Amino acid sequence: MQALDFPGCDQLLAMIDRAVSSDCQHQTTDCIRNGLAELIRTRAVTLPACVHEPVTDHYARRELYRCEKSGYSVVAMTWGPGQGTPVHDHSGVWCVEGVWQGQLEITQYALREQDGDRVLFEAVGTQIAGVGSAGSLIPPHEYHAIRNPSADAVAISLHIYKQALTCCSMFQPEADGWYRKAPRQLGLDEAA
């Protein structure tokens, strides 16, 4: 896939390329997280116009680049007011997420027990992440939910995945902290 052409794209991809050359996923995600936060804060990168357009009925996932050599994927997500995800995982794939515009509410969950496709989660922390903040998820610590807490503002985040994230598990709440696990194929919205 060719990268969309946007100001600072080369700088973003060069930073990621340097980071993924490490064999240590902790070192890789630390480098990407710090580099991404710096690029956002200094406004060294301007995301393409398509990223600023929310989709009415779901948060938008737009792949901006997929590296053929290393396999990593760069996805911009556009969160309309109140849009969010259920509790989900990343199918064992590390990810670095940075808030580009607006705010996101991120809740981390710890898996306490599993019984077939039922899992017991405990919410272990919620944070409001603002512009320039970045975090990473490294399996097995990957269970989380994200939402735009604003009633009227659009939020944008940039996600760098070890590889293209095409599926994950979603967890629907039942009772007393238990959730039912269900596989989900992830689509992409048009990026132009």
TrEMBL record:
<keyword id="KW-0223">Dioxygenase</keyword>
<keyword id="KW-0479">Metal-binding</keyword>
<keyword id="KW-0560">Oxidoreductase</keyword>
<dbReference type="InterPro" id="IPR011051">
    <property type="entry name" value="RmlC_Cupin_sf"/>
</dbReference>
<comment type="similarity">
    <text>Belongs to the cysteine dioxygenase family.</text>
</comment>
<dbReference type="GO" id="GO:0051213">
    <property type="term" value="F:dioxygenase activity"/>
</dbReference>
<dbReference type="Pfam" id="PF05995">
    <property type="entry name" value="CDO_I"/>
</dbReference>
<dbReference type="InterPro" id="IPR010300">
    <property type="entry name" value="CDO_1"/>
</dbReference>
<protein>
    <submittedName>
        <fullName>Cysteine dioxygenase</fullName>
    </submittedName>
</protein>
<keyword id="KW-0408">Iron</keyword>
<dbReference type="InterPro" id="IPR014710">
    <property type="entry name" value="RmlC-like_jellyroll"/>
</dbReference>
